[in-house]
Amino acid sequence: MSVIVKICGLSTEETLDAALDAGVDMVGFVFFPKSPRAVSIERAAALAARARGRAEIVALTVDMDDAGLAAIVDTVKPDWLQLHGGESVARVAEIRQRFGLKVMKALGIRSAEDIAGVPAYAEVADRLLLDAKPPKGAAHPGGNGVTFDWHLLDALDPGLSYMLSGGLDADNVAEALALTRPFGIDASSGVESAPGIKDPARIRAFIAAIRGFRPTADQGRTIAGERISS
Ligand SMILES: O=C(O)c1ccccc1N[C@@H]1O[C@H](COP(=O)(O)O)[C@@H](O)[C@H]1O
Predict the structure, then answer these.
(1) 146 Cα to the center of ligand 1, angstroms
(2) What's the gap in Å between 100 CA and the centre of ligand 1?
(3) Residue nearest atom 1 of ligand 1, based on CA coordinates
(4) Distance from the CA of 92 to the center of ligand 1, in angstroms?
(5) What average pLDDT is seen over the chain?
């Protein structure tokens, strides 16, 4: 099974088309007002309509209440809700139940302690996204373009499925893939020319780097399949 690719924070037709034409699997729209990638619900709905059937549509939210989530779900009609804040295990389960959509929970990783908290979320989320913890004082919990020590993921149960993000770009994604075993890869700032400005050439190069990655024999790498919670 090949690694799936998500490009997050798209906001224009041109860059959305570049990702779709390059074979992206998931496209993400950011509903976090402080982000340079934030889009209105109406803008996201138009972009989602353009992408539907070609890639899965992800609505990225941060500690959003039910009314805000309902407005996005009703108008954008995403396939996934990405929860990128401090949502508790119980809140993730509640959102999944209430909206009847697949839920991807993003978890920030900086230390071994952060790894210890991952399995509980695997019980309630349809997918996990392991991202770098934001630098101290960062204005948003993701999209900061920073990597983390990928070796920390060695401590995870090999059967646990996850997507990887955090500072990934065309230059470092092969190394990340060689050291980890993600189900999918997600990037935002690494495919931009400036914060919030996606770059079609960088999107193409990033997806080509992932599609062209071949593990060496001694890496003996396996990709864990999806773990769908019941
Ligand atoms: O992209 C954002 O602006 C954003 C804002 C708030 C929460 C999450 C956000 N992005 C997510 O973070 C990952 C990693 O970003 P990057 O590649 O390091 O820039 C990104 O893929 C989004 O899922």
Answers:
(1) 10
(2) 24
(3) 143
(4) 19
(5) 94
> Which amino acid is present at 178?
A
Taking the CA of residue 28 as reference, the ligand 1 atom at the shortest distance is 23
Amino acid of residue 62: V
Mutate to test the pocket of ligand 1, among 188, 197, 210 (most ligand atoms within 8 A of CB): 188
Q: Give this complex's ipTM.
A: 0.98
Say how far apart CA 13 and CA 228 lie, in whole Å.
32
Q: Is 131 a catalytic residue?
A: yes
- In whole angstroms, what is the distance from residue 121 CA to residue 70 CA? 22
The greatest distance separating any two alpha carbons of the chain, rounded to the nearest whole angstrom, comes to 50
The span from the CA of 222 to the CA of 216, in Å, is 12
Rg of the chain's alpha carbons, rounded to an integer? 16
Closest CA to 32 of 167, 193, 172, 144: 144
Q: What digits encode the pLDDT tens for the residues 86-101?
A: 999 999 999 999 999 9
> pTM of the entire structure?
0.94
**Positive/negative CA dihedral, 27, 33, 36, 42:** positive
Contact 205, 170 (CB under 8 A): yes
